[in-house]
Amino acid sequence: MGADDVVTMRVERAAGGVVVRQRNGAREVLLIDDQYGKVSFPKGHLEPGESWEQAALREVQEETGVIARIAGDIGRVEYLIERGGERVRKQVRLFLMVAEDGSEPVHQAEEVNGAYFLPWDEAKRRHDERGYENWRFAFAKADALLAWRDGRFEEAWRALGPDAPWEQVMGAWRDAEAVTRKLVDACREELAVTCPELHLPDAKSLVLPREVAEDAVRSAMESTLLKPEASEIDVQNLCLEAVHHHLPMVCVSPRHVAVAKRAVAGSGVRVCTVIGFPHGTQTANAMRQEALEAIAAGADEIDMVGPIGALAEGDVWTYAQAVRAVVEASRLRFPPVPVKVILETSALQPDAVAKGALVSVAAGADFVKTSTGYHKAGARPADVALMAIAVAGSARVKASGGIRTRAAARNLLRFGADRLGTSSALKLLDED
């Protein structure tokens, strides 16, 4: 599928669910027998005006009579079909759902020959034998999401900010670590099935938390000024501070790259800039052009915002295309300009954070980064750990957004960050 096809091709969408329930203390899964003799999950086409979620809930109820609520995102598959000689981009998305009542399913659609709940292991075995190959990851993904939900790790672990007391952070991590790693593995399995063309980074072991040297905060710091009202004088002063305090890098807006390069000339301080900032809504070609202009102005590194909306709805193909466009531009210079991909973790579910990190590195990124600083939350230990585990040995992690104390900075480094983007550099240094 070419880059232009992603934008211009006609699209058909369908949605449904992997529905679970507890019966007699055991987990059961809702399956259907479809008209092709396959075992599958209830799903069907989106109607005009529906969201993915609305269509998924409606289709489950229409096909099986089961009323459910959404508890997570299993994933999305895409493939090409033909309609009347025209190529069509088919998109199918499944959600994890929990049955709301104890009623038994009754197949109610012409294309469904049977609907029934089976115990988890039996349902998985039947799906493995008679199901569709492109959903073979669904049980592993559902199992990881349910473990995350049942452990209440969204509230007990992921909600913790970097300033939380170390004892509280460590206690939450001890509870969440196994499920965090399980979720990353499930996302890796999902992408291997849905995006076989991506060369995912090899899984490498990573021990967290890790030891952090005394001078680690200073050496990881990128002193940042990305306020839209920032003046050239503000940028020059930021650069003078970085030179005076021997900081490794400043991060400024694209129009200020040349100003910053002049201000730090001969000092060893490098200049980073941002692309697609702050929402990642530009086209891939527009981001590529931004990157080329930034590199021509002298940028030493690039932080690009990936298309957040695409990642949030499981469209990893569009996401990879955007990252690849900027990476290709960065490699036109020798040595290549390192590229960091900003995921905007607070806009994403934890599995989307893991997938965004994996896809970014598969598309050539050198770093993955948490946040722009313009969303509802910045860097958090849980998201940094997810990203670090996903890219261990293949890329590095930059934490940014809300890093205002030395304790927060050290906590994020312990959980896998290699760089720290902060607009509070002098405050962090004053705490030395």
From TrEMBL:
CDD domains: DeoC, NUDIX_Ap6A_hydrolase
Enzyme active site: 303, 369, 398
Enzyme Commission number(s) of this protein: 4.1.2.4
Subcellular location: Cytoplasm
Keyword Signal: no
InterPro entries named among the record's database cross-references: Aldolase_TIM (IPR013785), DeoC (IPR011343), DeoC/FbaB/LacD_aldolase (IPR002915), DeoC_typeI (IPR028581), Nudix_hydrolase (IPR020476), NUDIX_hydrolase-like_dom_sf (IPR015797), NUDIX_hydrolase_CS (IPR020084), NUDIX_hydrolase_dom (IPR000086)
Domain Nudix hydrolase stretches: 10-145
Biological or metabolic pathway of the protein: Carbohydrate degradation; 2-deoxy-D-ribose 1-phosphate degradation; D-glyceraldehyde 3-phosphate and acetaldehyde from 2-deoxy-alpha-D-ribose 1-phosphate: step 2/2
Keyword Hydrolase: yes
Purpose: Catalyzes a reversible aldol reaction between acetaldehyde and D-glyceraldehyde 3-phosphate to generate 2-deoxy-D-ribose 5-phosphate.
HAMAP family recorded: DeoC_type1 (MF_00114)
Protein name: Deoxyribose-phosphate aldolase
